[in-house]
Write the structure tokens for this entry.
Amino acid sequence: MTTRYLLCRAAASMLVPGLLLASACTPKNSAVPQPKPPQTSSASPPSTSSDPSSSIRSAYQEFWQVAGTIDKQPESEWQSRMSTVAADPQLRRTVQGLGLLREQAVVLYGSTTARITSVELDGDRATVQDCQDGSKAGQADAKTGKPKTVGVERNPVTATMQRGTDGRWRVSDVVFGGGACR
């Protein structure tokens, strides 16, 4: 694996979509495993407490919140903290990506805004489609704080969610589709 590939995977699997031209890092037609299309689809009705899509949406949004600030925590806490919102392979990718960023004296800044367009449920697996706004987030120099990159406003994201044995939904895969969404 090349360093460029690892950096692209780190950025794409991190939360800073579009920072390294996401389409060059994880295009839809790349060798990156694509989320399994659900066999049963459900529309995204208004959330109710009995609606599983509500807990899926909340878990997805929590993933981005945690991932956006985890680099401020001690490295020894990354795995355990991220495991509350992510499952493998995304958990592994995120922790490895954080390590690469730290080695290069790069930190994350800002926050992304999820604009979920659909949630499709298939048993203990769900697919979330998002038109994420990452325009207020990116990577910065760890010493100066000066931004090196900035995300894009309309970034298509497909995330696979997995329900754990504890009943909690976690992000298990994130794919940035490249281009822009509407």
